[in-house]
Structures
1.
Amino acid sequence: MINGIQVKVCGITSLIDAEAADRVGADFLGFDLNPKSPRHVPLEVYHNIVTHLPYRKKIAVMTEPRKEELRHALAIGFSLAQIHFNHTTPLEQIEKWSRTVGARHLWLAPELPPEMDVPGEWLSLADGFLLDPFCADENTRDSGDWRKFARHRETHPDNLWILSGDLTPDNAGEAVNKSGARFVDVSSGVEISPGVKNTAKLEAFARALRQR
Ligand SMILES: O=C(O)c1ccccc1NCC(=O)[C@H](O)[C@H](O)COP(=O)(O)O
């Protein structure tokens, strides 16, 4: 927790990076299990890392997983699964993911078009939602997308709302202040290359949250 904000550092691929994230105050560490991701972490490496950091919450980051993959992730010690999926995914599929691990072990990270809100029928299926409120147009970022995050958080306080997507040391303070987020997720904004974190950027990110 940094200045009242919970932090997840995602895309951890090494013990060095896990320890650096831990030192700056990350509450959650995200491990990408998608083999196609440049941040993919093989399970042997994951096991080696968590042996040294057993007390941190570990998130399995997955893209539209099969039921068996999801079940396996929880069985080998991940605290919960974060599923990335397209907004057109049928409700029955999301219900299956939820039934497989239980809503309290599930975060959903839907790719939503800017004009689309999280559908009401998804809310009971997962504890948390990652909402990426950034949009291509810099000019509308301030007025539209921060409000979208804030609106979800205020309207549905029983869910955990996690601000994610393109957060950096430069924009984290403003992002939190304008969105009202109490939980942020950062990955590429604290890297020197995909899957390799940078201690100075992690420290700068933490400083931005402390000084906001
Ligand atoms: O990081 C990836 O390569 C990735 C690939 C496929 C699905 C999800 C992926 N990453 C998720 C995350 O890193 C974070 O949870 C989050 O979306 C923030 O990422 P960033 O915008 O890089 O801060």
2.
Amino acid sequence: MPKDSKLKEEALLYHSSKPEGKIEVIPTKPHSTQKDLALAYSPGVAEPCLAINKNPIDSYKYTGKGNLVAVISNGTAVLGLGNIGPDASKPVMEGKGLLFKIFAGINVFDIEVDEKDPEKFIQVVKAIAPTFGGINLEDIKAPEAFEIERRLKAELRIPVMHDDQHGTAIISAAALLNALEISGKKISEVKIVVSGAGAAAISCTRLYKALGASAENILMCDSKGVIYKGRTDLNEEKLEFAVETSDRTLEDAMKGSDVFMGLSKGNIVSPEMLLSMNSHPIVFAMANPDPEIDYNLAIETRNDVIMATGRSDYPNQVNNVLGFPYIFRGALDVHATDINQEMQLAAVRALAELAKEPVPEDVKQAYNIQDLKFGKDYIIPKPFDKRLITKVSMAVAKAAIESGVSRKAITDWKAYEKELEERLNNTSKNS
Ligand SMILES: NC(=O)C1=CN([C@@H]2O[C@H](COP(=O)(O)OP(=O)(O)OC[C@H]3O[C@@H](n4cnc5c(N)ncnc54)[C@H](OP(=O)(O)O)[C@@H]3O)[C@@H](O)[C@H]2O)C=CC1
Ligand SMILES: CC(=O)C(=O)O
Ligand SMILES: [Mg+2]
């Protein structure tokens, strides 16, 4: 049986083994005696209700709200599978829940909403927001995703982040900075081709520009080809990236480029297109589950490529799993009202720097790799690196405090670091 068919079969078995799915709810307080029930439920439960009624911020003290994130989708852009609907999106949302928990000790309710209309979707999320300490929007297609996130950020006082936009932007930017360093190229000079002009691609490209990429060196393509000045079918976000060019296809755009950022669809880049790029090309084929070009095909086609995909089964996994658990951890711990650009840039720097530090033995063991160090095949930390929680979450919490969006101070950073380590240890013990 081919490797991929075997994996597909195993994935169905993994999900259907008892208990079905990937997450469950576990009580956190004693519940085995009459006294316990009198505290947990009626009559005792009335006391925290009344306290919160008097002082709403006490919901962080008496309930699990402060460590509970909603992963919410309407199923309109599920991975690279497209608009497969809310029911079919649930395995991904449960998966995000699993990752939030194992990597950052954050509880998740996954919520799949049968609503495509942006205004109605916004009203649904606003109505359920009191339950949560934060909202992670997931797999909602562009352009609706932009307005949905903008409105929810403006109208709610808890951190809201569309993971496909900003999680992806943070991780890919950190990996890009490191790949550029390895290839000896400057971000302000490289020619960048972005395949995709959706939620992930637009937001990632905005961040690359904030980090120094030059607008005239960027060519973005959607399903119809290059986004050029004069195209009449462009929405507001795509128009932001329209340039004067005679290139019309992805194939045209890739000629002589230094960087390819794939946030579109699997298997749309051919070996010939890869060969038309400049020396030491950087290729992040991030579409899931199938990258824009297969990892093995790319490295067989040219050995100077710095190659990354969104998948766990190849080197250089550029995937937002490296971001959302730690970004929300830092934001929740200071009761942040937002996840702003300062917090995002702090996460980029922390991730990029961590990749340059020696890799711990347990990470090497988890991936069965003896020799793992900063270089072409290791441009970004591995998801099983236990230092991510301290490095990234602390950087994010600090940036939240310094940029004025926190509502809770951290004064003893050493104690906070220890608390983060303990959270991770407790989560692994329970796994
Ligand atoms: N590795 C990672 O961490 C992440 C990867 N992704 C991946 O990025 C992809 C896009 O996700 P997202 O932005 O949320 O989805 P959206 O639906 O918002 O955007 C999809 C974009 O892909 C474009 N597209 C479709 N087919 C092609 C094609 N043949 N050539 C060029 N562009 C094409 C669409 O073009 P048009 O506008 O014309 O419809 C659209 O602009 C998915 O594959 C997803 O798995 C997303 C987030 C994180
Ligand atoms: C990784 C992810 O969020 C996606 O592919 O949509
Ligand atoms: Mg996603």
